[in-house]
TrEMBL record:
<keyword id="KW-0134">Cell wall</keyword>
<dbReference type="InterPro" id="IPR011050">
    <property type="entry name" value="Pectin_lyase_fold/virulence"/>
</dbReference>
<feature type="compositionally biased region" description="Basic and acidic residues">
    <location>
        <begin position="44"/>
        <end position="55"/>
    </location>
</feature>
<dbReference type="Pfam" id="PF00295">
    <property type="entry name" value="Glyco_hydro_28"/>
</dbReference>
<keyword id="KW-0732">Signal</keyword>
<keyword id="KW-0326">Glycosidase</keyword>
<keyword id="KW-0378">Hydrolase</keyword>
<feature type="active site">
    <location>
        <position position="256"/>
    </location>
</feature>
<dbReference type="GO" id="GO:0005975">
    <property type="term" value="P:carbohydrate metabolic process"/>
</dbReference>
<dbReference type="InterPro" id="IPR012334">
    <property type="entry name" value="Pectin_lyas_fold"/>
</dbReference>
<dbReference type="InterPro" id="IPR000743">
    <property type="entry name" value="Glyco_hydro_28"/>
</dbReference>
<feature type="signal peptide">
    <location>
        <begin position="1"/>
        <end position="19"/>
    </location>
</feature>
<protein>
    <recommendedName>
        <fullName>Exopolygalacturonase</fullName>
        <ecNumber>3.2.1.67</ecNumber>
    </recommendedName>
</protein>
<comment type="function">
    <text>May function in depolymerizing pectin during pollen development, germination, and tube growth. Acts as an exo-polygalacturonase.</text>
</comment>
<dbReference type="GO" id="GO:0004650">
    <property type="term" value="F:polygalacturonase activity"/>
</dbReference>
<feature type="region of interest" description="Disordered">
    <location>
        <begin position="22"/>
        <end position="55"/>
    </location>
</feature>
<dbReference type="GO" id="GO:0071555">
    <property type="term" value="P:cell wall organization"/>
</dbReference>
């Protein structure tokens, strides 16, 4: 749900406001983390009292490992060996003296006791060089608490803990690991720069509430590569203030698709620009590639320079959709007074099947039409028997070439 993601971002802003000043962007490294040849130490949580039996609370062992690692110079590696390590909330806050590596060979299990959590499960904040790698899992054990999620019923709901939160992290890599069954989002990036998520598997049932795969906001230079995501909400959601996003080789489904937005829910939201989604597959998702903004947007902002290319749909509903009248749970006013500008959007070589007749839906504002929309080689066909493939274009201006005749509505 877009408004909930926006609400969560506001909560993250509030959290950050009470912390120390953020690292200056101009001091960020141009490349990803590189710890070669810098020496350092290894901290094995099983040697610090952690028990991999899936029952014993190992929170203290992780806290001790972090304290030692963050104070050390060179490459500081925290090792989680094979086993199942149960923990409550884990807070890994820098700045640290050296580069931080989490080697996840075992599995972390998030406690199901919600009373332990003030906010999220695993929080990593104010770090300049971070690697999380391995073949282990972060298991939020969300199924035990999903019934406590009331966000589908009321706006001012209590947000359950997210699994992995990166705040003010520059130069990070997350690779190889799995995230399963979070209590809320699997992964959230806020005020991050130069982060790569690669070869990661994200899994939750299609009916699990608000289990977004990867959400980001106010971040830049984010790459999500060769990752498999199946969730109960957006596979990937790109929030306000984000720029320079590269998504490639992602398989999404089930889930609500790869989404930009929702945009305009809160005041002072910033532009979203320079987003590329290529070589992806969307399977049985409730949306394909989507841009959504509130009809009664509270912010003046622009979403621009998006490219969607070489995308395969496999019975995805709403394969291509721009929705400038987004209004979940009827919390907004349908007055058509949008303040969000959507322009320079390219859809190219998008093929496959749609589970709904409307393979293309460009639902733009009459007061602020979408402009610069380009559609090349769009060949998505409705997989049902009783209705023909169709497109709906409202207040969208641009060009269509090489598309199925039914889809050339620009």
């Amino acid at each position: 749900m877009g408004f909930l993601r926006a609400l969560f971002l506001v909560a993250m802003v509030c959290t950050a406001a009470h912390a120390k000043d953020a690292p200056k962007e101009e001091g960020a490294k141009a490349e990803g983390p590189s710890a070669a040849g810098r020496g350092g130490s290894t901290h094995d949580v099983s040697k610090l009292g952690g028990k991999g039996d899936g029952k014993t609370d190992s929170t203290k062992a992780f806290s001790e490992a972090w304290t030692a690692a963050c104070a050390g110079t060179g490459t500081q590696t925290i090792v989680i060996p094979k086993g199942d390590y149960l923990t409550g909330p884990l807070n890994f806050t820098g700045p640290c003296k050296g580069d931080i590596v989490f080697q996840l060979d075992g599995n972390l299990l998030g406690s199901t006791d919600l009373a332990l959590f003030k906010s999220n499960w695993i929080e990593m904040m104010r770090l300049e060089s971070l690697v999380i790698s391995g073949k282990g899992k972060l298991d939020g054990q969300g199924a035990a608490v999903w019934s406590k999620n009331s966000c589908a019923k009321k706006y001012d709901c209590k947000i359950l803990p997210n699994t992995l939160v990166l705040d003010f992290v520059n130069n990070g890599v997350v690779s190889g690991i799995s995230l399963v069954n979070p209590k809320f989002f699997h992964m959230n990036l806020f005020r991050c720069k130069n982060i790569t998520v690669k070869d990661v598997t994200i899994t939750a049932p299609g009916d699990s509430p608000n289990t977004d795969g990867i959400h980001m906001g106010d971040s830049s230079k984010i790459s999500i590569i060769d990752t498999v995501i199946g969730t109960g909400d957006d596979c990937i959601s790109i929030g306000p203030g984000t720029q320079g996003v590269n998504i490639s080789g992602v398989t999404c489904g089930p889930g609500h698709g790869i989404s930009v937005g929702s945009l305009g829910r809160y005041k002072d939201e910033k532009d979203v620009t320079d987003v590329t989604v290529k070589n992806c597959v969307l399977k049985n998702s409730t949306n394909g590639v989507r841009i959504k903004s509130y009809e009664d947007a509270a912010s003046v902002l622009t979403a621009s320079k998006f490219t969607y290319e070489n995308i395969k749909m496999e019975d995805a509903a709403n394969p291509i959709i721009i929705d400038m009248k987004y209004c979940p749970n009827k919390i907004c006013t349908a007055n058509g007074n949008s303040k969000v500008t959507i322009k320079d959007i390219t859809f190219k070589n998008i093929t496959g099947t749609s589970s709904t007749p409307e393979a293309v839906s460009l639902l733009c504002s009459d007061k602020l039409p979408c402009t610069g929309v380009t559609m090349n080689d769009i060949k998505v066909e409705y997989s049902g028997k009783d209705n023909k493939t169709m497109a709906v274009c409202k207040n969208a201006k641009g060009t269509a070439t090489g598309c199925l005749k039914e889809l050339s509505c620009l």
